[in-house]
Write a structure and sequence with these properties.
By secondary structure, the chain is an alpha/beta fold. Helix content is about 35%, strand content about 20%.
Length: about 250
């Protein structure tokens, strides 16, 4: 069973994080939404966060993990929000298990295939893991020459945790990701038809959902909605939290 943190009480809202992230990345917004009468489930995908590691890793399997979690917790239907990898998982879930979904929010990821583009990040995490560091300061000093963006460095540092000896190690299944770099970019079937009311939210400084992608999305998602967030890139929920929060509240009637 995948790991989850649960906040609040009320109708269920599941949140699926992005690649190399965890449910903890969404705690600030989840707390706000839980205070509006929702039971918010922050799920850690397999091979991420506090969830188990497995050599089986695909969008089909990750969508099944979410359904198994719902069954285990006797949740019959839920709203679903997914960012990046989590957004693609959510699309596969909506295609394969539509009866569980009330509404779907896909954050800054289209349905198309994406080429591998995390190589530098994966190599940096692999090196951090092999260095057996004892402090986060040492880890950040290693990352500074590689990644100028402080926000990205902090995101990567969240992947570190202390083992029983006090050494920092990487939580995610870094070996699997390095050895199978194309899995994360898989596309939804081009002939997919999803009838769940769906909101796509994109950052206007991001290139993950282009204007050219919208035509296919409108064909695949019969109840398609779009909200653009200005002055935001791929991590739009962190870069423009108030605008993002307002878009989600409106669509989910929070």
């Amino acid at each position: 069973m995948i790991h989850a943190s649960v906040l609040g009480q009320g109708p269920a809202l599941f949140i699926l994080h992005g690649f190399l992230g965890s449910g903890d990345n969404w705690k600030t917004l989840a707390k706000k939404w839980s205070e509006l009468g929702r039971e918010v489930h922050l799920l850690d995908a397999r091979n991420h966060g506090k969830s188990f590691h497995s050599d089986q890793f695909s969008y089909e399997i990750m969508s099944e993990d979410v359904i198994q979690y719902a069954h285990h917790n006797q949740i019959k239907t839920f709203d679903l929000l997914g960012h990046s990898m989590g957004g693609k998982t959510a699309q596969f879930l909506a295609l394969r298990f539509p009866q569980y979904l009330n509404r779907l929010v896909v954050v800054d990821i289209a349905s198309k295939a994406y080429p591998p583009h995390h190589t530098e990040i994966l190599e940096a995490l692999y090196q951090l893991d092999s260095m057996k560091l004892s402090s986060r300061k040492e880890a950040e000093e290693f990352l500074i020459p590689l990644f100028k963006d402080a926000g990205l460095r902090q995101f990567l540092l969240k992947n570190l945790e202390r083992d029983d000896s006090g050494t920092l190690s990487v939580k995610c299944n870094i070996e699997l990701f390095r050895n199978h770099p194309t899995i994360i970019g898989k596309s939804l079937p081009s002939d997919a038809q999803i009838h769940t009311p769906t909101l796509f939210v994109r950052g206007l400084r991001s290139n993950y959902i282009t204007d050219a992608d919208l035509e296919l999305l409108k064909e695949q998602f019969t109840h398609f909605n779009l909200r653009d967030i200005p002055n935001a890139g791929h991590w739009l929920h962190a870069e423009q939290p108030e605008l993002f929060d307002a878009a989600i509240r409106e669509f989910l009637n929070l």
